[in-house]
Write a structure and sequence with these properties.
Pfam families: UBA_7, UBL_UBAC1. Among the domains are: 81 residues, Phosphatidylinositol 3-kinase Catalytic Subunit, Chain A, domain 1 (Ubiquitin-like (UB roll)); 107 residues, no CATH class; 42 residues, Ubiquitin-associated (UBA) domain (Helicase, Ruva Protein, domain 3); 46 residues, Helicase, Ruva Protein, domain 3 (Orthogonal Bundle). The protein is an alpha+beta fold and 406 residues long. Helix content is 55%, strand content 7%. About 8% of the residues have low confidence. The chain has a 5-stranded mixed beta sheet with strand order 2-1-5-3-4. The chain is built from 20 helices and 5 strands. The longest helix is centred in the middle third of the chain and has 31 residues.
């Protein structure tokens, strides 16, 4: 009879190793507890060590393949240990020593010194200072006024840029190229680094793109959204305002127009009309896209969808500001958003006289940036960081802030 058949299902032969390099073979029945096995191993490698009852508890057995720490109260069979498995016997790390009372007192003292002052301490320290009434609502309205005024500036600058660019003999060709830039798929304008981080985590690319758009390109918030909506049957539905069929048709029409090229016999009037049509197409592509989550949240409060979209458009997709607008006097109105600034005002004149702005207005990309920021304020950061359009926006902001303080 073969030896394997005699001991099958009863005795296991286990290879045991220590951190010091000792190795040996232990033969144990399947019903042996891990604690008993550990005692046998300690007798083998450290003779006389079992005189101290704590020795067993200070050691542990680890299954080499699964890296699992074996439980003392379980049997070898319950731990699913197989014949010829390798176990590692190691000593547990000693717990860190408790801090001394002097160290505890010093740490508490340090924390108290770094602790922020409470309300009573602040009032006591500022009791002799003259009081000033700061109206937070005024600051909020000032910010809203800035956003409204900036929009008016962009509306007027778009008109100036269109007139300047129309004088360029290559204007039609320039804007066909610029228009082709807008025909790129939305995926190409998503933050590539953020998208790669999400796809490397295992999320589908189309779903990751949607999550990034909903969360303003924040990887952390997009990841939370993807996890939260993993089982949502509508997770892959297109965002409101996105109609792939229409976008494809429009892109095809624009591409065809871009490849056609102007006729060498076209008159100046025909070129002007063609340029006007390109401007209209660019404007249609830059239609305002409300934040879908903000739309749902505000509609749940009982507001009509059209009112909600108007509120978000007026308030640059900011949900809280849109809610205040809906509950307040609703100023400015959506119609006011298409009005430009007074072209004779000192502010607009100062902007037009700035050399950086003047040079930027002759660049078709600047016009595209103005159009984009006008209809999609959340894209402002993208254009502020652009090497061509960023300096123009910086000068406009500086001039506005300077004249607003005087």
């Amino acid at each position: 009879v073969q030896e394997e058949k005699i001991f099958a299902g009863k005795v296991l032969r286990l290879h045991v190793c220590t951190m010091e390099g000792a190795e040996w073979l232990e033969e144990v029945p399947e019903d042996t507890t891990v604690e008993k096995l550990k005692e046998r191993c300690l007798k083998h490698c450290v003779p006389g060590s079992l005189e101290d009852p704590k020795t067993v508890t200070h050691h542990k057995l680890i299954h080499a393949t699964s890296e699992k720490v074996l439980t003392d109260t379980k049997t070898v069979l319950e731990e699913n240990i197989q014949d010829r498995d390798v176990l590692l016997l190691i000593k547990k790390r000693a717990p860190p020593p408790l801090p001394k009372m002097a160290d505890v007192s010093a740490e508490e003292k340090r924390k108290q010194e770094q602790k922020a002052p409470d309300k009573d301490a602040i009032l006591k320290a500022t009791a002799n200072l003259p009081s000033r009434n700061v109206d937070r609502t005024v600051a909020h309205h000032n910010m809203r006024d800035f956003q409204t005024e900036l929009r008016k500036i962009l509306v007027s600058l778009i008109e100036v840029a269109q007139k300047l660019l129309a004088l360029n003999p290559d204007a039609v060709e320039l804007f066909k190229k610029a228009n082709a830039m807008l025909d790129e798929d939305e995926e190409d304008r998503v933050d590539e680094i953020a998208l790669r981080q999400l796809t490397e985590m295992g999320f589908p690319e189309s779903r990751a793109v949607k999550a990034l758009r909903l969360n303003h390109m924040s990887v952390t918030q997009a990841m939370e959204w993807l996890i939260e909506h993993a089982d949502d049957p509508t997770v892959d539905a297109p965002l409101p305002g996105q109609t792939p069929a229409e976008a494809t048709a429009e892109a095809g029409a624009s591409s065809a127009e871009a490849t056609a090229g102007p006729s060498s016999e076209a008159s100046g009037e025909e070129a002007k009309d063609e340029l006007t049509e390109i401007f209209k197409k660019i404007r249609r592509k830059r239609e305002f896209r409300p934040d879908p989550r903000a739309v749902i949240a505000l509609m749940e409060m009982g507001f009509d969808e059209k009112e909600v979209v108007d509120a978000l458009r007026v308030n640059n997709n900011q949900q809280n500001a849109a809610c205040e607008w809906l509950l307040g006097d609703r100023k400015p109105s959506p119609e006011d958003l298409d009005k430009g600034i007074d072209t004779n005002s000192p502010l607009f004149q100062a902007i037009l006289e700035n050399p950086v702005v003047q040079l930027g207005l002759t660049n078709p990309k600047t016009l595209l940036a103005f159009e984009d920021m006008l209809e999609n304020p959340l894209n402002s950061t993208q254009w502020m960081n652009d090497p061509e359009t960023g300096p123009v926006m910086l000068q406009i902001s500086r001039i506005f802030q300077t004249l607003n303080r005087t």
